[in-house]
Amino acid sequence: MGGKSAARPGVRSARRPEVSLPPLVPYEGGELEPDGDYDGLEFREADFVGQDGGGARFMDCALVGCALDETRLTRARLLDSVLTGIRGVGTDLAEATLRDVELVDARLGGTQLHGSALERVLVRGGKLDYLNLRRARLKDVVFEGCVLVEPDFGGARLERVEFVDCVLKAADLSAATLVDVDLRRVAELDIARGVDRLAGAVISPAQLLDLAPLLAAEMGVRVEGAAG
Questions:
Q1: Which residues lie within the region annotated Disordered (predicted)?
Q2: What is the DSSP annotation of 15-81?
Q3: Whether the predicted pLDDT of 177 surpasses 80
C-alpha cells in the first residue's frame, strides 16, 4: 500500500500514500450529513445517490462498492482512506481535500474536482470519464493502470505527478503548470489542448515523435515534403 516510487532519472518521483487502516466499524448511520464527521468506518455497498455530505470529514475510512451518483461532497475532506469500486455519475467533490487516499477500480463519470487539493493520492485501475480538475492542486499523485477520458486539467498545478500504464485520452492542459510530471510510461497519450504547457513534464522519445505534429502546429511550423 505504501512507500515511495522507485527513482526515475530526470524527474522527482511522486510519494505514494501510506494508508494503514485501523479495525473499522460498519457504517449504519443512514444518509450522509453536511459537515458530518466520519472516523474509522467502513461504508460497504452504501447507496449515497443524490445525498448531501458537503463539508464532511472522512478519516481512516473505507468506502467499498458505494454508489455516488450526483452525491454532493463539496469541500469534503478525505484523509487516510481507501475507496474501492466506487461508482457514480456527476459526483461533486469541488474544493475537496484528498490526502493519503487510495482510489481503486473506480467507475466515475463527470466527477467535479475543480479547485480541489490532492496530496499523496493513488488512482489505480478503473475508468474516469470527463474528470474536472480545473484549477486543482495535485502533489504526489499517481495514476496507475486506469483510463482517463477527456480529463480537464485547465489551470491546474501538477507537481510530482506520475501516469503509469494508463490511457490518457483528449486531455486538456490549458493554462496548467507542470512540475516533475512523468508521462513516459503512459500507454496511450492524447493531448487535445495545452500541448504548450508540457514544460516541466518528461516524455519518452517515442512520445515526442507522436506529439511532433502538435508541437509544430503550436510553434507555427509547417511540415512539407521537399519541392520536386
A1: 1-32
A2: BPP---PPPPEEP---S--TT-EEESEEEES-B-TT-B-TT-EEES-EEES-B-TT-B-TT-EEEEE
A3: yes
